Every structure is written in C-alpha cells, then in structure tokens.
Amino acid sequence: MTPFTRFYWKLYARCVVCIAFAAALACVSIVWLVDQETRETGEEALRASTARAVELARPFLEGRGDGGAVTGLSQLAESTQTRFTVAGSNGSVLVDTAQRPETMGNIIKRPEIHAARVLGSGLSTEYFREHDQLAAYAALPVYGGDGAMLGFVRGYSHIPVRYAAAQGDRKSDLLALTLIGGLALALAVLPVLGTYFTFRRMA
C-alpha cells in the first residue's frame, strides 16, 4: 500500500465520522422540531379548553346557583383530559375536577393566576424529567356582566415532550445545531471531492 493510498483511506475514515456526526445532528434537530410542535399544539389545546371552561364557570361565580357548572366542568375535563380549577377573585378554590376544594390552598400567588389577573391570560409550565412530561397550567379571568372580575378558571394538563423542548423557545440552539451539521457535512464532502478529482488527474 502506497503512502498516498494510506492517506486516502485515513481521509475516507475521517469523512465517514463527519457524515455520521452530521446525521446525528440532523436526527436531534428533527426530534427537537417534533417536540416543539407537540408542545405548541398541547398549549393551544389547553388554552382552548380553559376558555370553554370559563363559560361553564361564569354562572356559578355570578351566584346564579350551580347552573350545571360542576357537571359541565367534569364532563369537559374527561373529554379533554384536563383538570379544571375555579377560584374566586381572592384565589380561594371553589371547584376542582380532581380534588376537594377544601383540601386545596389559595392559588392567588400562582404565576399563571398572577398573569391572568394582570395580562388577561396566564400560562406556566413545570418539567418532570423522570416522565418526560411538561405540566402546563393555563388561567383566564372570569368577568361578570358589569365588567367586574369574579374569579379565575385554571386548566392543567400534561404534554409529553423532552427536556429541550420543555425549556421554551430554543430556535437559537436549533440554528447552532444546523450550522454545525452543515459544517460537518461540508468537511466530509469537500475532501472526498478533492480526492476524487486528484485521482482523475493522476489517471
């Protein structure tokens, strides 16, 4: 085996490593994109179901009796796989579809409730690494006919995503992965092309 042939095979091995690295980065990027789409879809569905729960809870918070609020919320919770909590304007829990209200503490200081009170809607998340699940809370204020705030409705559900997607918008990380993958692919392809044309000139 000539020195040039040995050089060629070493170069070929390095190219294979670069290609494998680029392929791995591509797979990571695809998984990241799928998880991001899952998260966004889950959060949109949670907001939508919470908005539906507001209409069910309004008669109850207005003091017009139950109005079927508890039954309606329970049915909505079952159909959407979402837990709903209805709280008064002071944060005291009045209705919950998964737990007895009297056993729950005041939720006025929860971040999603604070955002709902100040901004008109709130969303907070918490990631459980052992289950690869994102716990998402969406909250909306409930207003009466006179415009007074009556209380809040909070929806809670789990979204199956991995850690990277659970950390929020990571477009900069995805861009970095794409650039590194492109560089690795270029480092793999260019030497192969250079070697090919070198062999052609020698032939």
Short description:
The protein is α+β, with helices and mostly antiparallel strands and 203 residues long.
Which properties best describe this structure?
203 residues; alpha+beta; Beta-Lactamase; 5 helices; 57% helix
Low-confidence stretches: none
What fraction strand? 15-25%
User: What profile does the largest beta sheet have?
Assistant: 5 strands, antiparallel
**What is the residue-averaged pLDDT?**
80
Q: Count up the helices.
A: 5
CATH fold topology: Beta-Lactamase
Q: Care to count the β-strands?
A: 5
How would you describe what is shown here?
- The protein is of the alpha+beta class and 203 residues long.
- It has a single domain, classed as Beta-Lactamase (2-Layer Sandwich).
- The protein has helices spanning 3-61, 69-80, 111-119, 163-166, 171-202, and strands at residues 83-88, 93-96, 122-128, 133-143, 149-159.
- The chain has a 5-stranded antiparallel sheet with strand order 2-1-5-4-3.
- A hairpin with a 5-residue loop joins strand 4 and strand 5 (149-159).
- The protein is rod-shaped, with a radius of gyration of 27 Å.
- The two termini are 17 Å apart.
